[in-house]
Specification:
Elements: E1 2-8, H1 12-23, E2 27-34, H2 41-55, E3 61-62, H3 80-83, H4 106-116, E4 121-125, H5 130-138, E5 146-152, H6 168-171, H7 174-182, E6 187-190, H8 192-195, E7 199-201, H9 202-211, H10 213-230, E8 238-240, H11 242-251, E9 256-265, E10 275-279, E11 295-301, H12 303-314
Parallel strand pairs: 1-2, 1-4, 2-3, 4-5, 5-6, 6-11
Antiparallel strand pairs: 7-8, 9-10, 9-11
Helix pairs in contact: 1-10, 1-11, 4-5, 5-7, 9-10
The structure holds calcium ion.
The site of calcium ion (CA) has 8 residues, from loops.
């Protein structure tokens, strides 16, 4: 069993990823930590509690601080045109959910849960990297106690999605992402190079919902607004399933190819939030990538098999 803490900003594609983690028989979801990005921290946390309640998920929810690693960063508008005003596709999520939060802030929940399960926990981070960076700042030694970190974010040999240089999760907190990439733990970056190839068609989601209406009806309702947005960008009416793609990596890494090397994140200037890897196979004069751990950027994917595994798990 893979013990997982899911660090998330629900978020439509986050909701699908959460259902994948909840349904997969080899995954033990032991915590959900919330971060801001697709919506405010209040909204993403309320949404995490809502999905927990609706899908009967046992894992506790711990709320993030809702602050970038560098407090001087200017706030970015919430992407309401993609995720809706409620962060879940404008389905009228109740204002409050009558479920308790874990009393700890997200970064401390991560620290204490990792310390209680040394060497066993995978962190899957599909929002901004703020909580992970704050956890490392408070307790740098957890890097050696985490099994691996899988993140959805970044873009290496393809354009970004919020600027030509940057992917949104990284762009929302570049200083945090640079801390996460530079820490002495194994990071696998599942970025736009591969996620843009994983598309859930509207029709396919309807077919899956017909097979298992109980949980998928809600997911389908949540997803329609996002598909309306992505429909302009994706052929055949579908949605890119960024966050699910990162979760599939956990149980089927053989469906991905990776490039190893130190990764840095640009902070400031026109390329703010850009991810740049120094491949281990290339030599360069001394520079800013030296003496950092070699991380793993996904550069190839068997998208058909990834989507088949996603389909099969969502209908369980
Ligand atoms: Ca997300």
């Amino acid at each position: 069993m893979h013990k997982v803490i899911f660090d998330t900003d629900p978020g439509v594609d986050d909701a699908m990823a959460l259902l994948f983690l909840h349904n997969h028989p080899e995954i033990d979801l032991i915590g959900i930590t919330t971060v801001f990005g697709n919506a405010s921290i209040e909204t993403t946390t309320r949404n995490a509690l809502f999905l927990k309640r609706e899908w009967g998920i046992g894992a506790p929810v711990a709320k993030g601080d809702g602050k970038t690693y560098n407090p001087m960063r200017n706030p970015i508008d919430w992407p309401v045109m993609i995720h809706g005003h409620d962060g879940l596709g404008n389905i009228d999520v109740p204002d409050t959910i009558d479920l308790p939060l874990d009393p700890r802030p997200a970064h401390r929940f991560i620290i204490e849960t990792v310390r209680a399960n040394p060497g066993e926990v995978t962190l899957i981070a599909v929002g901004r990297m703020s909580n992970l960076a704050y956890a490392l700042k408070e307790d740098p030694d957890i890097a050696g106690l985490v099994k691996q970190v899988i993140i959805m974010g970044g873009a290496f040999d393809v354009p970004g999605n919020i600027t030509p240089a940057a992917e949104a999760n990284i762009h929302g907190d570049p200083e945090a992402a640079d801390v996460v990439m530079g820490a002495a733990w194994k990071v696998v970056v599942v970025g736009l190079d591969v996620t843009m190839k994983t598309v859930m068609l509207r029709k396919r989601l309807a077919d899956l919902t017909a097979q298992n209406g109980k949980h998928l009806k809600l997911l389908s309702d949540i997803s329609q607004f996002y598909i309306d947005f992505y429909g302009q960008h994706v052929k055949d009416e579908g949605m890119v399933v960024h966050d699910s793609c990162a979760c599939v990596y956990l149980v089927a890494p053989e469906l991905f190819t990776t490039c190893s090397g130190a990764i840095r994140v640009v902070a400031g200037g026109i390329a703010d939030g850009q991810t740049i890897q120094k491949p281990d196979s290339r030599g360069f004069p001394p520079g800013n990538w030296d003496d950092l751990p070699s991380q793993h950027a996904c550069i190839g994917i068997d998208a058909e098999k990834v989507m088949a595994l996603l389909d099969e798990t969502l209908v369980r």
